Amino acid sequence: MTQPFRHCTSYVSAVWPDITVDYADDHLLITSAEPLTAVSSALWRGGWTTATHFVNWKVPLTYRCENPAEMMREQMAVWGYPADAAIGLQTAAKITHAALEEEAGDRYRIVCCATAGTSNGARAGKIRETFSAYQCGTINIFLLIDALLTPSAMINGIITATEAKSAVLQDLQIVDEDGEIATGTTTDSIVLASTQKFEYGAPHRFAGAATTIGNAIGRLVYKAVYEAVATQGE
């Protein structure tokens, strides 16, 4: 399944049925049947935390807010979601074009969901105009993992996912305002959340591209982001 919300409003993972993804006009909701340990750059409850609800809130391109975290908290109440068990991202991209990829393998199950728009493509490492104000995320990646990972492996997984995202933009020739290949956009965000099940035995200590779990993360993120970026104009 790649873009289920072009045709339906709910998706249950085939490899991990405890993960469901639901579509509404103004947001996507990913739900886990059990709390997951998460690290993220999320607007709402970012950093290290636990969560069962993962929200991607669709806002207008013109969206501006002095206190977006508080606005997200209030919106959680409107939707009826537990704000203290949720992680919230925002996007101006088409959530109907959210792409999902999943896989089960060497002591892991992974579900990846990505939304993408690249109108504000940017290349990291160069001098450019900068802003202190918050803007909503444009390439948002959710990685839900049923596995046991060390904290450093979780961070390693975010690195691998970011590399995969940048590879997509290179392969699709997405450029920044100066015509150089973009490495991302100015407002990307990512969530990586894991069950941390001890039943898996030995933990994954690394998640780079040459490890089984890291290779899977890279491939799934690449496929999901590629699909979302390639179809953003449809």
Automatic annotation (TrEMBL):
Molecular function via GO: kinase activity
Transferase found in the keyword field: yes
Keyword Phosphoprotein among record annotations: no
Signal peptide limits: none
Keywords: Kinase, Transferase
PANTHER family: ADENOSYLCOBINAMIDE AMIDOHYDROLASE
Protein name per Swiss-Prot or TrEMBL: Adenosylcobinamide kinase
